[in-house]
C-alpha cells in the first residue's frame, strides 16, 4: 500500500499542494508560539516573565492549533473527495475499504511529514524573531534567552501529524463507505439532510454564545478588572461563526434561495442551481469566508472599543497588561485572517479542480469561456454574500455585549466604517480566488482535449 | 442535389510534428444528407474520435474542410465556432454529460440558455414535447442521479435536439448501457431521424449499434475504406473482422 501511495502522490503532486500548504503554514504559525512555553518553563527565565510568555504561547498557540486543525481537516477532506472516482476504481478491482483508508492515510502521512518538518524549520526562525519583537516592544524583558524550543517544535510536528492522520482516516472512511462503483458521485444531491453532529456543534456554539452574552451584559459593568468583559466576549464572535459554519450547506441553500431574484442570465441560472443543489461542495468555501469575516470584524471592533473606553489612571501593571492583551488580539486576528484567507483560496481551487469535467462539458455544449467563468463567479458571489452577512451577524456576539459593558450602548460609537471595509476585503478575496481557480481549471480542460 | 447536413472534404489531422507526427485523419471524405442516420465504424486508432471532434468544430483540422449545412466551420474564429456548435450541432456522449445539479428539463433547456435565448412558453412547450418524445415526460423534474443510465441518455438526446440542429453527433452513445437499454436508445435515435427528420452521425465500434443506421462508413488509418447501405449486424461484423485482418497484415508488413 505504501509503494502505491508514493506512486499515487507523484501523480497528483498539484492536488496535494493544498494539503501541503495548510500543514506547512499550520506548523509554522503554531511553532512560532509554542517555543515560548518552553522558554517560560526554562529554569533561567525570571518568574515575572513566565506568566507573560505562558499566556502568549498558550493563548495564541491554542487558537493557532484550533485554526490550523480546522484548515488541515477541511483541506484533507476536500483532497480525498476529489478522488472518489479513483477510489471507486480501486475498490472495483478489489481494494478493501481498509486498504483504501490505508492508502489515503499513507499519502497524507508522507505529505504531512515533509510539510510539518519544513514548517518547523520555518518556525525555529520565526519564533526567535517573535521573541525579539516582544523584547523590543518591552513586553518581555531583555534577559530572557531563547532556548531553541526543540521539544516544543517536535511536539508541534507530532500534533499536526496526528491530526492530519485523523483527518485522513475520517475522509478515507467516508470515501470507502457504500458499494464499490466507478460511477462518479458528482451528482450526489446536496439537498440531503444535515448530519446530526453538525446540528449538535451549531446548537452547542449558539447556546454557549447566548449564555456568555447574557452573563456579560448582566454582570460585566460591575467587574473590578476592565478586561474581564473582554476575556468573556472576545472569542464569542468566532465561536458563533465556527458553530454556524457547521451548518454551512444549509446557510448556502437559504442564501441562494434569497438571492435567486438577482441571479439573472445563463450564468446566474447555473450558479443558483449549483449552490442550492450541491451546497455540500461550496460549503467548504463558505465556512472559512464566514470565519474570516467574523474574526476580523469582531476582534478589530473590540480593540477599537477598548482603546476608546479604557478608564484613565490605571496602575502600571494594568497598563502593561493592556499592551500585551492588545498585541495578542492583533496577532490572533492576523493569524486567523491569514489562515481563513488561505483556506478560501485552497477550497476554491479544490472545488474547481473537482469540477473540471463539468466545466469542460459546458464548453462542449457551446458555453463560451465567459459564460463558464460568469457562472463560477456568480457562485462565488453567493458564497461571499452569505459568508459576509453571516460573519457580520456572528461578530455581533462580541461587539454588542462589549460595547454595552463599556458604556457605548448596543452599537459602538465609532469605527462603523470598519466592518464594511473588512467585509469588502473578504468578498474581494472570495471572488479573486474563484477567478484564479476558474482560469486554471479552464486551461486544464483545454489541455485535456 | 440537396446540401449535405455534414460534409467533410480531405479532412486531415496530424498530431505532433517531425518524426513523431501521427496522422489521425488522412484525407477523409464523407457526406451525410439531411434526414439520414450514418454510423462511422473502424478499429481502434482509425480516427473515429478525431473525426467527431473535427466535425463538431471542437478541434481545428490540420487540412481539409468541414461544412455544416454548407457553411465551412474551419474558417471561423473560436467564438464563431462556439456559437455554431451550440446552435447547429447537437452532441450525445458515451458518458451522458448531464449537469448533475440541473433537472432533466433544465438540462434540455441548457443549450437554449447558453445561446442566450429566453425560456418562454414556446420554448418550454418544445422542451416538454422533446421529453415526451424520448419517453420521459413524467421525469422532467428529476435530477440525473434519480434517473437510470438509459433515461439519462434519453435526456441527453433531447438536449442535443432542442436547438433544432443541422446535425447530431453521437460518440458511442450506447457504450455505457446494457444491451437491452442500448437497443431502445438506438431505436429512439433511428425514429428521431425518420420521424423528425434529424440527421445523426454516430461513431461506434459495436456492429449491432451500427446496424440501426441507414448506412455504415468504415474508417481505417484515417481514411474511409468502404460504405455499406442498409446494414445488418452480421455483415457489419464480418466487414469489421476483415478490416482488423487488413490492419494486422499491414502492421506485420511494416515490421
Protein model, in words:
The complex is a heterodimer of chains A (449) and B (255). Chain A is mainly α. Chain A has 16 helices and no strands. Chain A has helices at residues 2-11, 17-41, 47-81, 84-92, 97-136, 150-175, 196-219, 228-233, 236-245, 248-259, 265-277, 279-309, 316-354, 356-364, 369-405, 418-448. In chain A, helix 1 packs across helix 5 (97-136), helix 10 (248-259) runs antiparallel to helix 11 and helix 12 runs antiparallel to helix 13. The two termini of chain A are 32 Å apart. Residues 186-191 of chain A have low confidence and may be disordered. Chain B is α/β, with parallel strands linked by helices. Chain B has a single domain (6-254), classed as Rossmann fold (3-Layer(aba) Sandwich), CATH 3.40.50. Chain B contains 8 helices and 10 strands. Chain B has helices at 48-55, 78-88, 104-114, 121-133, 149-161, 179-196, 207-210, 233-254, and strands spanning 6-15, 22-32, 37-41, 63-68, 71-72, 89-92, 167-171, 200-203, 215-220, 223-229. Chain B has a 6-stranded mixed sheet, sandwiched between helices. A 4-stranded antiparallel sheet of chain B has the order 2-1-4-5, covered by helices on one side. In chain B, a hairpin with a 2-residue loop joins strand 9 and strand 10 (223-229). At the A-B interface, helix 11 and helix 14 of A face helix 2 and helix 3 of B.
Topology:
The complex is a heterodimer of chains A (449) and B (255).
Chain A: H1 2-11, H2 17-41, H3 47-81, H4 84-92, H5 97-136, H6 150-175, H7 196-219, H8 228-233, H9 236-245, H10 248-259, H11 265-277, H12 279-309, H13 316-354, H14 356-364, H15 369-405, H16 418-448
Helix pairs in contact in A: 1-5, 2-3, 2-5, 2-6, 2-13, 3-6, 3-13, 5-6, 7-9, 7-15, 9-12, 9-15, 10-11, 10-12, 10-15, 11-12, 11-15, 12-13, 12-15, 12-16, 13-16, 14-16, 15-16
Chain B: E1 6-15, E2 22-32, E3 37-41, H1 48-55, E4 63-68, E5 71-72, H2 78-88, E6 89-92, H3 104-114, H4 121-133, H5 149-161, E7 167-171, H6 179-196, E8 200-203, H7 207-210, E9 215-220, E10 223-229, H8 233-254
Parallel strand pairs in B: 3-8, 3-9, 6-7, 7-8
Antiparallel strand pairs in B: 1-2, 1-4, 4-5, 9-10
Helix pairs in contact in B: 3-4, 3-5, 4-5, 5-6
GO molecular function (chain A): transmembrane transporter activity
Organism (chain A): Nocardioides albus
Membrane topology (chain A): Multi-pass membrane protein
Amino acid at each position: 500500500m505504501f509503494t502505491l501511495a508514493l506512486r499515487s502522490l507523484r501523480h497528483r503532486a498539484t492536488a496535494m499542494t493544498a494539503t501541503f500548504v495548510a500543514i506547512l503554514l499550520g506548523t509554522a504559525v503554531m511553532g512560532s508560539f509554542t517555543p515560548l512555553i518552553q522558554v517560560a518553563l526554562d529554569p533561567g527565565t525570571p518568574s515575572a516573565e513566565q506568566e507573560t510568555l505562558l499566556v502568549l504561547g498558550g493563548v495564541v498557540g491554542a487558537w493557532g492549533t484550533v485554526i490550523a486543525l480546522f484548515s488541515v481537516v477541511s483541506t484533507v477532506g476536500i483532497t480525498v473527495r476529489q478522488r472518489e472516482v479513483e477510489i471507486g476504481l480501486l475498490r472495483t478491482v478489489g481494494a478493501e475499504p481498509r486498504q483504501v483508508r490505508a492508502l489515503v492515510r499513507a499519502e497524507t502521512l508522507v505529505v504531512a511529514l515533509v510539510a510539518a518538518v519544513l514548517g518547523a524549520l520555518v518556525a525555529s526562525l520565526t519564533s526567535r524573531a517573535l521573541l525579539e519583537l516582544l523584547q523590543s516592544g518591552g513586553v518581555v524583558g531583555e534577559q530572557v534567552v531563547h532556548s531553541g524550543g526543540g521539544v516544543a517544535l517536535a511536539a508541534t510536528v507530532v500534533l499536526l501529524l496526528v491530526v492530519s492522520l485523523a483527518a485522513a482516516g475520517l475522509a478515507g472512511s467516508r470515501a470507502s463507505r457504500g458499494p464499490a462503483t466507478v460511477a462518479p458521485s458528482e451528482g450526489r444531491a446536496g439537498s440531503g439532510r444535515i448530519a446530526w453532529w453538525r446540528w449538535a456543534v451549531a446548537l452547542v456554539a449558539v447556546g454557549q454564545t447566548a449564555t456568555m452574552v447574557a452573563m456579560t451584559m448582566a454582570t460585566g459593568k460591575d467587574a473590578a478588572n476592565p478586561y474581564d468583559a473582554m476575556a468573556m466576549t472576545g472569542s464569542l464572535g468566532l465561536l458563533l461563526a465556527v458553530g454556524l459554519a457547521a451548518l454551512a450547506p444549509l446557510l448556502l441553500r437559504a442564501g441562494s434561495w434569497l438571492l435567486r431574484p438577482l441571479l439573472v442570465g445563463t450564468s446566474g441560472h447555473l450558479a443558483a442551481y449549483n449552490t442550492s443543489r450541491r451546497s455540500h461542495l461550496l460549503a467548504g468555501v463558505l465556512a472559512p469566508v464566514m470565519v474570516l469575516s467574523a474574526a476580523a470584524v469582531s476582534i478589530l471592533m473590540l480593540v477599537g472599543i477598548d482603546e476608546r473606553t479604557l478608564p484613565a489612571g490605571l496602575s502600571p501593571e494594568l497598563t502593561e497588561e493592556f499592551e500585551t492583551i492588545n498585541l495578542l488580539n492583533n496577532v490572533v486576528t492576523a493569524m486567523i485572517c491569514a489562515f481563513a484567507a488561505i483556506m478560501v483560496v485552497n477550497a476554491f481551487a479544490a472545488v474547481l479542480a473537482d469540477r473540471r469535467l463539468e466545466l469542460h462539458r459546458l464548453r462542449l455544449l457551446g458555453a463560451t469561456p465567459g459564460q463558464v467563468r460568469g457562472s463560477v463567479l456568480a457562485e462565488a458571489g453567493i458564497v461571499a454574500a452569505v459568508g459576509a452577512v453571516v460573519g457580520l451577524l456572528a461578530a455581533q456576539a462580541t461587539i454588542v455585549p462589549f460595547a454595552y459593558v463599556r458604556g457605548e450602548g448596543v452599537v459602538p460609537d465609532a469605527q462603523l466604517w470598519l466592518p464594511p471595509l473588512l467585509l469588502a476585503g473578504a468578498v474581494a478575496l472570495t471572488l479573486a480566488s474563484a477567478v484564479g481557480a476558474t482560469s486554471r481549471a479552464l486551461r486544464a480542460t483545454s489541455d485535456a482535449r | 442535389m440537396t446540401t449535405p447536413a455534414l460534409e467533410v472534404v480531405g479532412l486531415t489531422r496530424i498530431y505532433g510534428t517531425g518524426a513523431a507526427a501521427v496522422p489521425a485523419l488522412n484525407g477523409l471524405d464523407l457526406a451525410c444528407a439531411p434526414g439520414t442516420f450514418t454510423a462511422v465504424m473502424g478499429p481502434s486508432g482509425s480516427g473515429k474520435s478525431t473525426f467527431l471532434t473535427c466535425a463538431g468544430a471542437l478541434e481545428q483540422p490540420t487540412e481539409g474542410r468541414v461544412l455544416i449545412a454548407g457553411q465551412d466551420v474551419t474558417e471561423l474564429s473560436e467564438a464563431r465556432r462556439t456559437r455554431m456548435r451550440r446552435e447547429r450541432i447537437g452532441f450525445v456522449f458515451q458518458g451522458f454529460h448531464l449537469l448533475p445539479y440541473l433537472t432533466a428539463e433544465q438540462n434540455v433547456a441548457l443549450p437554449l440558455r447558453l445561446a442566450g435565448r429566453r425560456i418562454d412558453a414556446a420554448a418550454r412547450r418544445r422542451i416538454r414535447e422533446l421529453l415526451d418524445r424520448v419517453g420521459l415526460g413524467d421525469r422532467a423534474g428529476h435530477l440525473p442521479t434519480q434517473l437510470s443510465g438509459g433515461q439519462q441518455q434519453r435526456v441527453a438526446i433531447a438536449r442535443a435536439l432542442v436547438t433544432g440542429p443541422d446535425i447530431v453527433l453521437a460518440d458511442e452513445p450506447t457504450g455505457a448501457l446494457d444491451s437491452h437499454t442500448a437497443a431502445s436508445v438506438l431505436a429512439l435515435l433511428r425514429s428521431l431521424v425518420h420521424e423528425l427528420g434529424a440527421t445523426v452521425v454516430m461513431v461506434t465500434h459495436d456492429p449491432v449499434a451500427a446496424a440501426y443506421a441507414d448506412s455504415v462508413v468504415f474508417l481505417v488509418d484515417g481514411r474511409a475504406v468502404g460504405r455499406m447501405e442498409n446494414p445488418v449486424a452480421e455483415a457489419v461484423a464480418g466487414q469489421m473482422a476483415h478490416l482488423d485482418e487488413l490492419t494486422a497484415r499491414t502492421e506485420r508488413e511494416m515490421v
